[in-house]
């Protein structure tokens, strides 16, 4: 009987040691076979380095909007902006009578200049990055409004104009306001 207990213990120990060895081998194999592939954006990030020469590298920010149509910066034309604006409503909300709005301004300028035109609103890009600044004529019913804490939202907030700023490199909508 004692002999069977020893055989059972030896068998259990051997089985345990085999299982442990298998775990170690599988763990090692898993770690050495893991490959890290470049993300699809790695080419874009390298391209961005050249675009913003010497500036801190950033990934794309904003919400996809205007589809780039040409190489370089700006990556789209004023006609591309007009086409986008004609087929999309103002980000802040629709016009009062649900009709289309008019475009007062479309211009490519530096982010710092756009910030100044918007009374210091930050666009989220380096000051010398090129952006597309647009001014739209409403009136607009503002639906996507956030007020500072403690300030009530007006019953029907109306704005006579809207501003949208796009990244001239990606076409992404960076910021909107009134």
Secondary structure layout:
Blueprint: H1 2-33, H2 42-51, H3 78-87, E1 102-110, H4 111-117, E2 130-141, E3 158-167, E4 173-177
Antiparallel strand pairs: 1-2, 2-3, 3-4
Detailed description of the structure:
This protein is of the alpha+beta class and 178 residues long. Helices cover 33% and strands 20% of the residues. The protein has four helices and four strands. The chain has helices at residues 2-33, 42-51, 78-87, 111-117, and strands at 102-110, 130-141, 158-167, 173-177. Strands 1-2-3-4 form a four-stranded antiparallel beta sheet. The longest helix has 32 residues, at 2-33.
Quick summary:
The chain is an alpha+beta fold and 178 residues long. The chain has helices spanning 2-33, 42-51, 78-87, 111-117, and strands at 102-110, 130-141, 158-167, 173-177.
Low-confidence stretches: 1-57
**Largest beta sheet, briefly?**
4 strands, antiparallel
What's the pLDDT, averaged over the residues? 74
Number of helical stretches of at least 4 residues: 4
